[in-house]
Amino acid sequence: MASKTLLRRVLTTLSSSSIGNPKTPSARRCSSLSAASTEAPLPPSPIPPSIKSSTRVPSSLNEAEVAKFAAIADTWWDFEGPFKPLHWMNPTRVSFIRSSLCRHFERDPHCARPFEGLKIVDVGCGGGILSEPLARMGATVTGIDAVEKNIKIASIHAESDPLTSSIEYCCTTAEKLVEEQRKFDAVIALEVIEHVADPSGFCKSLSALTVPNGATVISTINRTMRSYATAIVAAEYILHWLPKGTHQWSSFFTPEELVLILQRASVSVREMAGFVYNPLTGEWSISDDTSVNFIAVGVKDSH
Amino acid sequence: MQSSMLLNRVFARRIVATTFRLFSPRRTLSNGGSGGFNGEGSVSDRVGTLEEATDQRDKDGMTSNIGHYDVAIVGGGMVGMALACALSSMPLTKNLTIAIIDSNPALRSKGSFKQDGVPDPRVSTVTPATISFFQEIGAWKYVQQHRHAYFDKMQVWDHTGLGFTKYCAKDVDKDILGCVVENKVLHRSLFASFQDTDIQKTIYPARLTSMAFESPYSSAVADSQPPNEQGISSGSAYPRDTSRKQHRECLAKLDLDDGSCLFAKLVVGADGAKSRVRETAGPKTTGWSYPQSAIICTVEHNIENSCAWQRFLPSGPIALLPMGDRYSNIVWTMSPKESTDHKLMSEDDFVRAVNHALDYGYGPHPQSTFLGLPSDRFTWITGQGISSVSEYFEVPPKVIKVASERMAFPLSLMHAHNYVSRRVVLMGDAAHTVHPLAGQGVNLGFGDASSLSKVIAEGIMTGRDIGELSLLKKYEKERMTANITMMALIDGFQKAFSVDVGPINLLRAAAFHGAQYIKPLKRNIISYAMGEQKWPLLS
Prior knowledge:
The structure holds two protein chains of two kinds.
Chain A: H1 2-11, H2 63-71, H3 84-104, E1 119-123, H4 131-136, E2 140-145, H5 148-158, E3 168-171, H6 174-179, E4 184-190, H7 199-209, E5 210-221, H8 225-238, H9 255-264, E6 267-278, E7 283-287, E8 293-300
Parallel strand pairs in A: 1-2, 1-4, 2-3, 4-5
Antiparallel strand pairs in A: 5-8, 6-7, 6-8
Chain B: H1 2-32, H2 40-59, E1 66-74, H3 78-89, E2 97-101, E3 123-126, H4 128-136, H5 140-144, E4 148-151, E5 153-158, E6 164-168, E7 178-182, H6 183-196, E8 200-204, E9 208-214, H7 219-223, H8 242-247, E10 251-256, E11 261-269, H9 276-281, E12 285-301, E13 307-313, E14 316-324, E15 327-334, H10 336-344, H11 347-357, E16 369-370, E17 373-374, H12 379-382, E18 399-402, E19 407-416, E20 420-421, E21 424-426, E22 432-433, H13 441-461, H14 469-497, H15 502-517, H16 519-529
Parallel strand pairs in B: 1-2, 1-11, 2-8, 5-13, 11-21
Antiparallel strand pairs in B: 3-7, 4-7, 5-6, 9-10, 10-11, 12-15, 12-18, 12-19, 13-14, 14-15, 16-17, 19-22, 20-21
Helix pairs in contact in B: 1-2, 1-6, 3-6, 3-13, 13-14, 15-16
């Protein structure tokens, strides 16, 4: 695969450890929060107690970024609204995650629910654009977001479909979940790391949430001239796909930087791919061109 | 009280589901027998239990039994059934719950018909592309147990004696060009194959009255429940305000004329040219009626016919399609007045008229020359001369008697501006009706069913809501191109042949000539007509 050769190039200087495959997903660690279970997929599902954000936990949150997203939260499920580019891109990134996780967890990619029995956390879930597809593919999904409004919207939206109503949505942060000693087979944070205040602390939290040999998935935007031209100038100022100020170019990461940050957090990146937009067909596709949008799949070290 | 109502509701629904499950294997067994679809016992049993289930519902006072489905197919005809069958045959989609809404008794009454009887005049010419789709979804084996007639030759000529072309399957290295099958055989085969599968299915023997979009959790159901049973996991119970409504996903709610009601993520309008789904969903249509009617019937020959014949007459084309067992099918397009005359005239007169139309009537036989010049003059264009005897003009076998009633129906062309909207899809005749000229109508419908089933599978692959507009747009994009191309071609053909003016006749003859003697063009036209490629002239 092209993306693999590219990755090998990136990883030449980095050592990697061998992985085994987890046999069964780990048992539930957090009794109260994981009450929303797959055993009873039909609503109404029991409600876990609310998480009060009163206790002070060191957080990688950037308050200004939180406020920015709260302002447009209402439009999460408006396919023509500010999150339109995300909706367009979503099937492409979901299909990459699907095939990547199917390979990692040795699941049959041709069945309707390959993630049955896997516990996945969607960090920075927003309105649930990724959590819902993951739940439809059979995963036991926890969606967390620092913006309370997002969580409300995500919960309301998910309840219409029995397949998604079992998603556990919490207004919390990755750090707090670490404190609660929650563990997941896969931890996914898409388009989040460029919005956090402390990226390396954030990666350490993601790693702490992942079971040994579990998967950590991060997607973000590269810091290249092309990403400046397309993700900021074109998307925010010319095409108005995104509200102005959505992204700060300086807070973007290059794939090499991301690999290093994850390496320090005991996550070895195994796969990397780019997402490219074709303006003629209006479609996104998976590519080995990581110069703008890219995704990295890593494996949590087993020791 | 509330909960016991709910329990009854669930119970009633279970009964419906179980009865279908129980009786489908029996049907399958009877289908395996020599007689084909004569499993009268099992079918009537099934109807019995279905009625019981309905009674049960009524006893419980459940006049509005609300079911929830992934896909509701309105119209269980050939195209709707093909979609149901396709969905139940693919690993990605076989876990979907399907409802079929159709009051057609064929889906519940006894479906016996004898193989050796006279073929029904309502037939379709299925292309090899359709045949392989049927094979994929497990329905072709049932077609093969019944009457079907493959043909490997097709002769098309016109009344001026100038235009003539003959297609052979071997020109494109294939064994067949197509197969003529009675519509009822196609439908029953799809239904049998659908019953074989263990997909969760419910058939509603009713008609659609209205369709709305609302959340199944809004109004009475949601409000009657305590707030903390809503499945929200974030802790606080949110006020049931307008913002709640705003973010709630709406499903399609279908009300049926028997008082039942159901919710679906995706509603498929496969309910024909007068589609109720299209009327309710509101896509605009473009259409016009041809000032023509078609008369169809089954005829008998002395010998078996194995070629599809089509001749363009001044009033419209006449087609003679092989049906097997010395039977053929006639589709004759003419003015409405003529069609009434031909329907009412005596059988002997009609047989005479048919034989006349397929032989020397309206004009001479075509020569194997173009404009009186021997065709070998054109070898510099075509690369080679006439290669085999089969390229020569033949007169179709004589008709000796009419074997069925003669049916006449008006022709029209209609195309919906949109095939999809949120949670709604149109397929087959509900989206497009074409002139029955090339027998392509139903093939376009099966193409729709195949495409839609694959788009739904793709949606499930990426965990999408299958009623999402951006997903359904993929189906529309794919099928609109294919359907418009074919419709324009058929309509163009129809218009080109309905004039009888010297220069146009010549042009037509030149086009025919090109189609007959320029080999790559000919191969191209054949494989387009076989449904193997998207565009008629580019490859």
